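ARCHIVE CARD
Drawer: 12
Card no.: 0347
Subject: one protein chain, sequence and derived structure
Cross-reference: see card 0346
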Amino acid sequence: MTTTPSTSALSPGQRIRLARENLCVAMAFYAASHRGLITPAFVPASTEVYPADGQPVDASVPLEMSDQRGLIRCAGNQVRAAFALCALQTQRELDGVSADEPLEEPDLSFRAVRAVCFVVGLALDRELLNPTWVVPTEYRQRFECPAMDLTLDASAWNGREMRWEHLGGLPAYLDLVLFASYCVDGMAIPDAASIAKGDYTSLRELDPAGSHAADPIVPGYGSGSGRLRPTGPAASGPDPGSGWIAPDKPPEPAITVASQASECGPIEDFVADVCLTGAEAMSLAGDLYASYARWCLDQGYLAHSQRKFGLELRARGYQRKRRGKGKHWWLGVTAPQD
């Protein structure tokens, strides 16, 4: 059964825009969950959907969400997956458009886009959902993208956890992806940049035959990257249905790309708020991490991996040693058990 057009019938740019749209929807779901506009009660355990052929299809959703935190975690996982799909699809299509390496691109703006997308892809190749920058030496530089009024400095990224601010923020990243999508479809750099900034005039002028008819164009608003950007007659009054999820400005997620939609619990806060420290304090490694995971759940965070948790504790001077019966203990820190 097919309910949507085959992606093979789409242009390379349309495939990028489809993946980008998926990320935008996931972020909207995340933001709505955080605002309480969507609750677990809105997510049915089972239902039927009716595709174009009219035949009902069972769409059971076996999600176990007892509270809002569970819904937020699910929304976070959606964004993590959607970001990975968008980034990898963009990189794939950019690689297919030119035989040149990213740094060999003659146009400064397109070179910057290809270079940044290339190193994003390297990070995702190493760890899909918790990416850490892997930046080859020759890419550790500032990339200027004049067409998008954007500068990205990759000189200090290598080895660091990927964060939205490295990419200029989520709205800037989404605009950059939109810019790339029209570039790979052969559009001139200035026109692609205008569209990515929210001006669809050039798209209508350059596409009288309607070859981009499948692309959504919302009159009066920008690219849909999460910012309300009135550009025409629709700007004269508020329209709650035209924004990202509401007419007021949605929050800019101050989060890591690793956790995407739900920030990982700060380990320093856990130690300060929950733990006892000192020469006499000690805790089984597994018990301490379990306490951290429970604290994250209570606070509405995702938990860092146990490896990341251990690295952060070591960086703060705590020691992990094997003691009686071969079990690992943290020395100098403990969390009271319930």
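Annotation on reverse: Residues 48 and 169 are 38 Å apart (CA to CA). The chain has two domains: 7-47+57-236, 267-334.
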